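Budget justification aside, the reviewers requested a transparent look at the raw inputs and outputs of the sequence design task funded under Objective 1. We therefore reproduce one unedited record. The lines immediately below are the structure tokens for a 138-residue chain.
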């Protein structure tokens, strides 16, 4: 099957929330168990709503074991690397392609500036190009 629904799976790393504190996103398994297939491509989508205060620095991390994560080297990222989110660049969608070979990905937000309200945003990992299609959706 060559249609998009059969070849793409979207997983949340940072679920939509109003954030005023640092948070580690959920690790996303590129070898999703329900599909028994390693996804060859990953796109991280950061969807920002209103940021009222604080500085929200977004990083993408990878891991072999979903336990020991490290920041992805710039050479393995293409596209929009999210800047630190502040009031002047909110309400934007950033898309970053991951080209590395690690099995797990997650998005981390580091919040500084002692915000009282913070910012509303989420991060999803779009997995595509499975070695075995069709993708099983939950």
């Amino acid at each position: 099957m060559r249609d998009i629904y059969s070849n793409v799976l979207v997983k949340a790393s940072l679920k939509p929330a109003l954030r005023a504190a640092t948070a580690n996103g959920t690790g996303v398994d590129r070898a999703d168990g329900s599909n028994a297939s390693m996804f060859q491509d990953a796109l991280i989508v950061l969807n920002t709503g209103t940021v009222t205060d604080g500085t929200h620095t977004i990083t993408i991390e990878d891991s072999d074991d979903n336990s020991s994560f490290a920041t992805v080297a710039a050479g393995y990222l293409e596209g929009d690397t999210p800047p630190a989110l502040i009031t002047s660049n909110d309400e934007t969608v950033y898309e970053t392609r991951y080209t590395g070979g690690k099995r797990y990905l997650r998005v981390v937000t580091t919040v500084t500036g002692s915000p009282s309200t913070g910012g509303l945003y989420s991060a999803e990992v779009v997995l595509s190009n499975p070695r075995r299609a069709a993708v099983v959706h939950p």
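The first strand starts at residue 8 and ends at 19. The chain has a mean pLDDT of 92. Computational costs for records of this kind are itemized in the attached budget.
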